[in-house]
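Hi D.,

Good news: the full-assembly prediction came through. Inputs first.
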Amino acid sequence: MSTKIGFPRALFYYLYFPFWHQFFKELGYEVVTSSPTSKLNMDMGIKEAVNDACLPVKIYHGHTAELKNKVELLFLPRMIRVRKYDTETFCPKFLGLPDMIKNSIQDLPPLIETDIDLFRGKLSLWRLCHDIAGSLKIKDFRIERAFLKGLLAQDRFKACLAKGYLAQQAIDYVLYDTPLEDIPLPRQDMELAVLGYPYLIYDNFANEEIFVRLAQMGVKVWTVEMVPPLRMNRYKKSLPKNLFWNFSNRTIQAAFYYLNEHKIDGIIHVTAFGCGPDAVVGKLMELMAKEKGRVPFMTLSLDEHSGQAGIITRLEAFVDMLHLTKGKIS
Amino acid sequence: MLLSFPHMGNIHFPLTRVCQVLDIPYLLPSPPGPKALALGQELAPEGSCLPFLLVLGNMREALDQGADTILMLGGSGPCRFGYFVYLADKLLKDAGYEFQMLIVDKGHHLENYTFLKKEREIKLSQIISAVQYGWELLNCQDMVERMEREYFPAVCEPLKFKEELAYYRKRIEEACSRTDLKSLRKEMVENLENTPRRPVESVLRIGLVGDIYTMLEPQANQHIEEYLLSKGICIYKDMAVTKWIPNVFLPWRKSKYKRHLLKESYPYLCNSVGGFGLESVASTCKLGKNEVDGIIQLFPLGCMPEIVARSALNKICKEERLPVMSITMDQHQSMTGFQTRLEAFLDLVQNKKEAPSAS
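Then the structure:
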């Protein structure tokens, strides 16, 4: 039986899992993920993590705690940079994530710790893969094959996200050939941009299935991942200084795109309580929406309450207001 | 042109002196307090941290009083405070203020210099010598404060020591050249270091760690230093503007500084996390070894680097058997809750010190 590598189903899972899954699989390992976020592993995370940490980091702790007894190795990368772009890096909690996990959770299995610093793009990634394979005592052509398969899977995954599928659907499609199914949209009366970080947008438990709820209200949803990358690059210089955080830059640029090029009826900013970068991102987006002829803007802040009613009420109120302004209310 | 700058601890004194030397008219906002907080809260985003609220409040107050240029430090992350100057610029302009923001950051130096030259006809050589003078002033101030923190509770004749401190403080304020300040600092260190003191073991010693603004600005840390000194507790604090600025602004010192910190904080934190997270962990490890009796970590609510540091401090607390308490500071201005926690912690540390085997 092959060795099991654990990959917590949280944070960067929602953007980079297909690559790492294919890579480790080709090297002859079995990749195990934790179960989708639920009350159970969220509570575990709240128990283990530092109490000031934000919701996504607590969820990550929970997933790691769930995995620790099920696997022989745990993949715990430190995200430093994924592209060379001003001073862009990740939020401090990402930079210190392996340390936080090691400090807070006891009896961890052996770790694969790597610093992911892709300042030279794919070349750095190739080197990094060699290092990881080296630490697993693999040194032949399998690395190249695994690397290419990983890239291929990642490209197919990105294409699915760009079409508007949820990350989990896209991952299942790319890795296990589960057919893609559209979220049923009974009637379409408006288009909203739902902007935020992938680990909040695509975590159905944390955001109380925002996509399904909005679809039921007749809303077509646009996300950050649905913006064509070349269009996004146009807004590289729109701020006096780019933000320091990768996900935040992508969110802001997506907001610029939707406000300038793509007709939408409003923006919903999904954020987590206690998210540091979002204090800046949210305010900047609010000011941008105001400048662009008062585009309706709402911040939806998620926390560990996990009460559905509050979120649904806020979404309904926002959509109703938009109907009112359009003069369409029945 | 009327220049203004937000407060941070006593950094305003050297800055006003530099302005006087360069003959730039300046306006000093009132020290951060409830007023600055109220002004800042009105404009700032909901989740912003206490330092930003106070800084923004300071800026608004100055602008209300007629300042038209604001000097402020920028940064390059990943702590969000580095971006706040750009956000503050947007927020204040959105609120209808008209002013020029002088940002001290990479890529802005030339712009700032041409602005100053145009407005006040200041030569580069003048700026350099004024900044050198201000720097020395800052060094002297830091030194006096450090001596007070570390020696005062242990000296045999506190009244005499206090008088001497006041005497040197006055002389620093009066000194008007860099060479004067240098010789004064040397004299002061020699003099004060030789004051007769009780052995350090007889006094309770507490280390303070946390982010720079909370460490330096008494309003943001509920005057913790004053409180601890009044209880006769020595304070050890590594945080100082004079230690931090050269290591961040002089590129050749940066990597050496970081390597040094990483070595000290190993194995609890193995990467820089922005802000002062790494410094907090490194200084906890270092102070812990030098037989500090306890560590207090102070940081504003939502401070990302310090949250990462906190997870490391929790582990240090368990593994090195070093008492550590973390307190989050927010807009609440009530002293009672804060003091109760401090007292409880100090009692605990005192008991542990007196009966080390029982703990």
